[in-house]
Amino acid sequence: MGGEGMYARAVADVRAAKPVMELQSLRGLAALIVVVHHCALYFDYGSGARSFVTLLLNAHGAVVSFFVLSGFVLALSLMRAPIDPQRLVAFYTRRGFRIYPALWAGCALGLAYLLVLGPGATMLGTEWARGNCGLWPLPPFRILVSLAGLKPYLPLPIWSLAIELVASAAIPLLVYAMSRSVRLFLVILAALVPLSVLGHGKLLFASTYLIDFGFGAALALVVPNLRGALRSRNWLAAFTAGGLALLWSARSLTGADFDTAYHDAATAMIEGLGAALLIGAIYVRPDGFGVLAGRRAMRLGDHSYSLYLLHQPVLSILVGVAALVAPGLIAAHPALSTLLLIAGTIAVALPLAGIAYRCVELPGIVAGQRVVRLVLAWMGGAGRPVSLTVAGQNLRDAGTISR
Asked: Which of 223, 269, 282 is nearest to 61 (CA)?
């Protein structure tokens, strides 16, 4: 089938498809992996044990999964109608209101931690703890840079949000190219491979990871083909097992050290391919993933963005308080302290993320819709309906975490 026919089939499929909430649950599980991994990085309980935990959890693969899922969901949303200036304005406005309110709430909590407790407790931790939770004092400019979502000077995982911001600007261009010519899209996708390898560290590390967003967009294009292939349980099992295997073995295959080559391009690409296989299988055959259909799993997915943002200041606060109350326990029992930190962070961050979702994220989404209506009216597009969904997606799918 020609490129135009392939894109037309993909557009027809997305217009007829219903939201797949199991993907939201996947996002929640990935966020939880990042939470546990960051807690496990804080104290030094032996380099061998920490390396084993790092490989077991593979939080980097979880973050890459966020990127692929973001590219997939955003591409699906943009494919529902032709891209024009009004849709671009609406898209970028919604993205801003989706990303920034929760980011600012997280920055406020991180700044409060540094002002009240200070970074002294990080001296009981690892180099990761000091580098990610102990940068203080900060000049006002660096605080503003963190508020802009560009650099992680405050104790939040802002580096992935910076990549999300760059990719959010690029995704509409990828989908527009796809709509004009599938061949052109494939050429651009292929060009992202050397960009990932040769542009290491450029554009806030976005150059390394844009290929993963491209994998997500490409997945949106081939969904109709997957629907036919994954009717077979054998193919569904193969896609799922292959995706998980690539996600969890990528760093072993490339030999990239987690500490010295965290942003290794080859690792990011292999993990991205694995995430695309897994996400495609879940999207096309959600009935095969009953574990992701539970109410608690979906609630975790709803709260995943706030959980991702807030867990780092939460764990920093817990360590700061523990350092005041029982510093000897941390020094004498780092492994036990790690287990207690994991349990305490989850116990505090999960309900806090639920509050942030209801009181910060959802109001931000609604505010973004109102601004879109005003801007479109000013542009002369008031006749185009703008509902409380993001380009046809369910409200809870209105954005993505990177996270």
From this structure: 269
What share of the chain has pLDDT > 90, as a percent?
87
Sign of CA dihedral 351, 50, 403, 143: positive
- Coil/strand/helix, residue 36: helix
Torsion of CA 186, 188, 189, 193, to 10 degrees: 130
DSSP 8-state secondary structure symbol assigned to residue 286: G
- To 5 degrees, how large is the angle CA 130–CA 136–CA 139? 140
- What type of residue is 330? I
Please, which residues bridge with residue 393 across strands?
390
Question: Which token pair is 199?
Answer: 């542009």
Is the Cβ–Cβ distance between 140 and 124 less than 8 Å? no
Strand partners, 390: 393
Task: With H, G, I as helix, E, B as strand and everything else as coil, classify residue 390.
Answer: strand
Do 249 and 51 contact (CB within 8 A), yes or no?
A: no
- Cβ atoms of 227 and 284 within 8 Å: the answer is yes
CB 65 within 8 A of CB 30: yes
Contact criterion met (CB below 8 Å) for 316 and 10: no
Instruction: State both tokens at 318.
Output: 């817990």
CA distance 152 to 384: 38
Q: Quote the CA–CA distance of 32 and 396 in Å, as a whole number.
A: 18
Alpha-carbon distance values, 364 to 73, 104, 168, 194 (Å): 19, 11, 18, 37
Looking at residues 161-174, what average pLDDT do you find? 96
CA distances from 71 to 109, 241, 346 (A): 29, 22, 28
Q: Please provide the size of the chain in residues.
A: 403
| Those residues with Cβ within 8 angstroms of residue 139's Cβ, 6 or more apart along the chain or in another chain | none
What's the token pair of residue 144? 């503003």
Q: Which two tokens stand for residue 328?
A: 């000897």
* pLDDT at 2 (0 to 100): 61
Q: Is 44 exposed, middle or buried (0-12, 13-18, 19+ CB in 10 A)?
A: middle
Does the pLDDT value for residue 393 go beyond 60? no
Supply the pTM of this predicted model: 0.93
Q: In 3D, which of 204, 146, 214, 151 has the Cα closest to residue 178? A: 214
Residue partners of 194: CB distance under 8 A and separation at least 6: none
Residue 116: Cβ within 10 Å count: 9
pLDDT of residue 186: 96
